[in-house]
Design brief:
The chain is 88% helix and 0% strand. It is an all-alpha fold. InterPro entries: Acid_resist_chaperone_HdeD, DUF308_memb.
Length: 179
């Protein structure tokens, strides 16, 4: 097994372990989200640089891949080294997620109303029969988004769990690439 595959495999395992920690401690994950993002940016960039180096030997490298890995490394180091940047990332994520819920809810309502309108215009019994489920989902998303803006605790837990799952998936992907 090439050195790059071994390192990529090990980094994938580290990411899976990090992701499992996030799943077990979602609130702590949220509170350390900026730091976790920084660490994983560095891990990903090291893997990217090693992979670029191996591809360069095979004549299949891209300068853009190397530039992306170096950019991730720089931003990861900045994020780990700055408590203020970590706090900004933490605060931004929860409020962006709440706003995202509201926007997606509004879009779902618009889609539901459009389906209902088309259904009525075509006088179709089968087409868009359950348009009201999309409408209800949209309303619930808006309610969750508004509640999250005023009390983001539930969203914080959901973000921590989601983040952990995404890190596990990224780690599994690194292991699959190494195999």
């Amino acid at each position: 097994m090439k050195t790059s595959r071994i390192v990529t495999f090990i980094l994938g395992i580290v990411m899976i372990i990090t992701g499992m920690y996030c799943l077990m401690n979602p609130v702590m994950t949220y509170m350390t989200l900026g730091y976790v993002v920084g660490v994983n940016m560095i891990i990903d960039s090291v893997g990217g640089i090693i992979l670029w180096h191996e591809r360069k030997k095979e004549g299949m490298s891209s300068g853009w891949e190397l530039a992306g890995a170096i950019a991730s490394l720089v931003f990861g180091i900045i994020l780990i080294g700055s408590t203020a940047m970590q706090l900004i990332v933490d605060m931004t994520i929860v409020y962006l997620a709440a706003i995202w819920l509201i926007v997606v809810g509004v879009i779902r309502i618009m889609v539901a109303l459009r389906i209902h309108k088309v259904r009525k215009a075509l006088d179709a019994e089968i087409l868009g029969r359950r348009w009201w489920l999309i409408l209800i989902a949209g309303i619930l998303l808006i309610v969750c988004g508004v509640l999250s803006l005023f009390n983001p605790t539930g969203l914080i837990v959901a973000i921590g769990i989601n983040f952990g799952l995404n890190i596990i998936i990224a780690g599994a992907n690194m292991i699959a690439v190494a195999a």
